[in-house]
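Readers of this paper often ask what the protein records in our data store actually look like. An entry from our holdings is shown next, in its original layout:
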Amino acid sequence: MTRGEGTFGGTWQGEGSRLGTWTMGVRVYGCNLHCGLLKGSGVRPDGCDTAHTWYEQDYPRQEWAYEASVDQVLAELERRMQPRLRRGGTGMVFVTGGEPLVQEAAVGQLLRACRERGWRTQIATNDTLPPSRLGGPDCWPDDFNVSPKLATGINRGADPASKRIRPKAIAELLATRRAVWKFVAADVDNLDEIDWWIERFGLPIDNVWVMPEGTSTAGLTAHTQQLAEAVLARGLNLTTRLHILVWGAERGR
C-alpha cells in the first residue's frame, strides 16, 4: 500500500461519532476528488487540508508517498499501540487519506488484519467509491466515516456534482449499516444542502453529524457558534475538530 504520511498516534479521534476516542492513524496516498483546486494552479487555503496526499505540483509524490507492506504497517501500529494495550485497552485504527478506497484491496487487507487482532477500525471516505472495492464484509471497517463534499463547502466547485455524488456508492455504503455521515459546514446556508442529502438518500439522522469548518481555533469557534442553534433546530448531531483545538493545523497528530 502507498502511504501519504505514514502511521501516527497514539492520538484521539478528532471528529464525528467517536470524538475523543483513543486511536492510531494510518494516512494513505491518493484521492479521486480535488477539493479547493484552482483552475490555474494551487489549492485554496480554505480547500483540502490534506493536499499533500494528492496534489503533486506542490507535494512531489517521490517526497510525500512511500510504499509499505500490510505487515510493516501492522507491526508499526502494534508497537505504537503498546501504552494502550498494556493497560488492558482496546486498540483502534483509523485509516484516512486522501481517499483510502482508491487503494482498494490493500486497505481492505489491513482492515481485516486489524479486526482479527480485536482492534476497532474506522475508515474515512468521501462517498464516491463503493465499499466492495475493499473486498467482502470481512475487509470492511467497523465504521465508515463518510464525508460528502458539498457544492458550497470545501470542494469550492473543483469537482462537478456527477463526480461528487455517486448514488450507487452511497446506496452500498448505507447497505453496510456501518456508515456514519459527516458534513463540513461553513455557514447556515450549507445546512440546506445537508437537508437535501438526508432527504434524497434517506440518511438516518441518528448517524448524521455536522462539523463546523475551521483550521484554527478562532475560525472553528466562530463557525461553531454561528451554526449551533440552526443545527439543533434540525435535530442533527454536532461535532467539533478536536485536533484543531489541541494542536492547531499541525500534521501527524
Q: What stands out?
A: The chain has eight helices and nine strands. Helices lie at 61-64, 70-85, 105-116, 161-164, 167-176, 189-201, 217-233, 242-247. Residues 217-233 form the longest helix (17 residues).
